[in-house]
Amino acid sequence: MAAPLAPRRGAGAAGRRWLVLLPPLLLVLLLVRPAGALVEGLYCGTRDCYEVLGVSRTAGKAEIARAYRQLARRYHPDRYRPEPGDEGPGLTPQSAEEAFLLVATAYETLK
């Protein structure tokens, strides 16, 4: 009859050490990237979301929604027509689409 194999002493301790260190390491790796995206999202890229919608920081949900609807109607790519004296970001259909996306992002962030 063959003798039972004796467990190796060195491999078990190192394996358990990795199991202890792995969860905190994974947690750090998972949280670093989303935190940076959150900070950028709060400011709608480089601009302040409240400034994009043209409302104050004390604006309520209704005022934010009203400002969003007005700007979305104005810069929607399917309905955009330049107004005389329009000096906003929507001077061309392409920039109107960019302005529409910026307004939509600001609203999604603040709502």
Q: How do you describe this structure in short?
A:
This is DnaJ homolog subfamily C member 25. Helices cover 65% and strands 0% of the residues.
Question: Would you give an account of this structure?
Answer:
- The relative contact order is 0.12.
- The chain is elongated, with a radius of gyration of 27 Å.
- α3 packs antiparallel against α4 (93-110).
- With 111 residues, it is mainly alpha-helical.
- It has helices at 9-42, 49-53, 61-75, 93-110.
Summary keywords:
mainly alpha; 111 residues; 65% helix; 4 helices
Profile the largest sheet: none
What average pLDDT do the residues reach? 75
Give the CA-based shape: elongated
First and last CA, distance: 74 Å
Strand percent estimate: under 5%
The portion of residues assigned to helices is 55-70%
Query: Which residues sit in consecutive blocks of at least 5 with pLDDT less than 50?
Result: none
Order of helices and strands: HHHH
Radius of gyration: 27 Å
Task: Count every helix, treating DSSP H or I runs of 4 or more residues as helices.
Answer: 4
